[in-house]
Specification:
alpha/beta; 9 helices; SIR2/SIRT2 'Small Domain'; elongated; 2 domains; Rossmann fold
């Protein structure tokens, strides 16, 4: 199966944990996954940060260490190829939005990219003082090693904790409203608001394609559901016309 993309198409891609899992990074839904041995309330909420920032940093430092060992897989590279093919013809026809906080898309070569849940390799001020997030690849052994913002606030992981608003939602909504093809890769359809994106695209009349190892919970909202590993399906899956 191939998906034709015409010169008039605008493509919005959403990726989830499944694409990173093919690079060896676990998903939190699996029995041996990301949250095994940890309560979300202890490591990924604003309350956890206020109560025990050392525990939060220990958790995300471990995630950074694991992320450094992972490499982009053929699915990441196929999305880069699609972005380049579209933008060579007409810039602005492609946007990749990921729920993942790893940097595998960037390392593969993706450019027009939104991390709606934050970025593991960045930190930001806990006081939300307006300072921009900073690049930070450190794996901290203790809280004493963590730096502070110019305002005096401690740096926290640039991660959207549970209960916080995802990033760049206004831009995401604008891009979905004008896309003609939505491609969703490796998501369960259970995490909101991302699980609603396909419904927004459906309302706008866009084609909607899902690729992943299992049917998502929102499968009925797609025009095509392709079950399989993204690294096997995505290479050669798109035919860019014109």
């Amino acid at each position: 199966m191939t998906i034709p993309i015409s010169p008039a198409d605008r493509v919005f891609v959403l990726t989830g944990a499944g694409i990173s899992a093919e690079s060896g990074l676990p998903t939190f839904r699996d029995s041996d996954g990301l949250w095994a041995g940890y309560r979300i309330e202890d490591v990924c909420t604003p309350e956890a940060w206020q109560r025990d920032p050392a525990a939060v940093w220990a958790f995300y430092s471990a995630r950074r260490a694991a992320g450094k060992k992972a490499q982009p897989n053929p699915a990441h590279l196929a999305l880069v190829e699609l972005e380049r093919a579209l933008n060579l013809r007409d810039g602005g026809r492609f946007l990749l939005c990921t729920q993942n906080v790893d940097d595998l898309h960037e390392r593969a070569g993706s450019v027009n990219l939104i991390h709606m849940h934050g970025e593991l390799a960045k930190s930001r001020c806990e006081r939300e003082c307006g300072a921009e997030p900073v690049e930070d690849h450190a794996v901290y052994a203790s809280l004493d090693e963590v730096g502070r913002c110019a305002c005096g606030g401690r740096l926290r992981p640039h991660i959207v904790f549970f209960g916080e608003m995802p990033l760049e939602m206004d831009r995401i909504q604008r891009e979905i409203a004008r896309c003609t093809l939505m491609v969703v890769v490796g998501t369960s359809g259970s995490v909101y608001p991302a699980a609603n994106f396909v419904h927004w695209a459906r309302f706008e009349g866009a084609r909607r394609v899902y690729i992943g190892p299992e049917r998502p919970l929102n499968a009925d909202a797609f025009t095509h559901v392709v079950e399989g590993k993204a690294g096997q399906v995505l290479p050669g899956f798109f035919h860019v016309e014109g």
